[in-house]
Design a protein that fits this description.
This protein has one domain: Porin (Beta Barrel). The protein is 14% helix and 48% strand. The protein contains four helices and 18 strands. The longest helix has 28 residues. The N and C termini lie far apart (72 Å).
Length: 425
């Protein structure tokens, strides 16, 4: 121990001697050189920042955010053909288990001017076959002037409140009947462009218009899929000769707060385009949506709350004959409504109730896609965290073509891993 102390004592004195003998002028010269180089580096960085096109607050990310969402359900019904009762491609489609949706999401900043997001869907159909589809993949502008924003790519049409939402964001196990009739099982979506304008008013108001392709199974009320039968007619192949052969979807939405605890959102939507029943046949869809939410000033992680959502839609479909002499043209009119109420009564627990009605006039109203239907659906949802949920739902279906009402029950569960953004309010 004494040797160690002695060695440390000698080393310390040697260090002091070396420092004492070092020339002071050389140390000052080194410090001055380091300060000069640091100042030059700072000046160069400021010069590069001044030339950079990157606006303040926008940091390009070379690694996108990623998340994986899994949505599953187990179902039982008094009807063996559960798939014909449910109108959505992501609804429970059989007795037993259903893989409703497995969604991989990639998102991030592209450059100073655009962000991008992509949703890839993996699924397993009723026959057990796996499939992959591109649900959405689009750019969104971040630097357009005059309160304008551009969206371009493959995206859900901004019609009403429910159609733009992904299945895991729904408040019920299945989509409403009227949405399935108007927009098909996968919802209305397709390649196109959308321009939106934030109206400078004291309250939130946004006007938008989208142009999208009118063909494919996700454009069920329009050109749809040539060769398939719809409403008693075989759909034909129609060429795109102008902007009128695309689907045009305008929308106006506004929001205001009647009080500090209440929020109201109102929207009006339209969709206009050609359909595949004839060379000049066209479809028009109109819709009104309302959303109301009450939440007290003091909450526990967002609870308690009350939310009410309603949508009303009407479609005018010209069902043309090909050739025209083989049968008279028909004007098919379909309408429907759903209204749902959610009550978050204690943290992590939500009880809901949804009522629906859909019916058609003109043509064959016994068509399963147009016959009168009424449905009532209560449910109960438990959220262990923001990354998972469990939901129990009962459906009561009244269908005139069936001898008795149909009773169905579902258990749904969801998990989410990875980064994810907030859902649309």
């Amino acid at each position: 121990m004494r040797r160690v102390v002695c060695h440390r004592f000698v080393i310390g004195w040697l260090g002091l001697i070396v420092l004492w003998g070092a020339p002071v002028g050389a140390e000052e010269t080194d410090i001055q050189r380091l300060e000069r180089e640091l100042a030059e580096t700072k000046a160069a960085v400021r010069a590069l920042e001044a030339k950079s096109p990157v606006p303040q607050g926008i940091v390009p990310r070379f690694n996108p955010d990623m998340s994986l969402d899994g949505l599953f359900a187990a179902g039982a019904s008094t009807a063996p053909d559960l798939e014909t009762l449910e109108t959505g491609a992501h609804d429970p489609n059989q007795r037993g288990f259903t893989v409703q949706n497995i969604e991989l999401t990639l998102s991030g900043n592209v450059d100073p001017y655009f962000t991008a997001i992509g949703h890839l869907i993996f699924g397993i159909d009723r026959e057990g076959e796996s499939f992959l589809e591109v649900e959405e993949a689009y750019l969104t502008s971040t630097a357009l002037p005059a309160n304008l924003q551009l969206r371009a790519g493959q995206f859900f049409t901004q019609f009403g409140r429910l159609n733009p939402q992904h299945p895991h964001a729904w408040a019920f196990v299945d989509q409403p009947l009227i949405n399935g009739r108007m927009f098909g099982g996968d919802g209305m979506r397709g390649p196109g462009m959308q321009l939106s304008y934030l109206v400078p008013l004291p309250v939130y108001a946004e006007a938008m218009v989208a142009l999208q392709n009118s063909q494919g199974e996700t454009m069920a009320s329009f050109r749809s899929v040539p060769g398939e039968d719809l409403f008693g007619r075989t759909l034909i192949e129609r060429q795109v000769e102008g902007i009128g052969d695309l689907v045009i979807t305008p929308r106006l939405a506004t929001s205001f707060n009647p009080s500090d605890t209440q929020t109201v959102l109102l929207g009006v939507s339209g969709a206009f385009g050609p359909n595949g029943s004839g060379e000049s046949a066209r479809t028009q869809i109109l819709g009104i949506d309302l959303y109301y939410k009450w939440k007290p000033l003091q909450t526990v992680k967002g609870w308690p709350f009350v939310a009410w959502q309603t949508e009303v839609m009407q479609r005018r479909y010209v069902n043309a004959a090909v050739p025209a002499a083989s049968a008279p043209n028909e004007i098919l009119r379909d309408r429907g409504i759903y209204s749902q109420m959610l009550w978050g009564f204690v943290p992590r627990w939500v009880v809901g109730l949804r009522g629906e009605y859909a019916a058609g006039r003109g043509g064959d109203v016994t068509d399963p896609l147009r016959e009168r239907r009424t449905r009532l659906s209560p449910n109960l949802t438990f959220y262990p965290s923001e990354f998972s949920k469990w939901r129990f739902q009962y459906n009561y279906d009244d269908i005139p073509s069936r001898d008795a009402p149909v009773h169905s029950v579902f258990l749904q569960w969801e998990f989410l891993i990875g980064a994810h953004g907030a859902h649309t309010f």
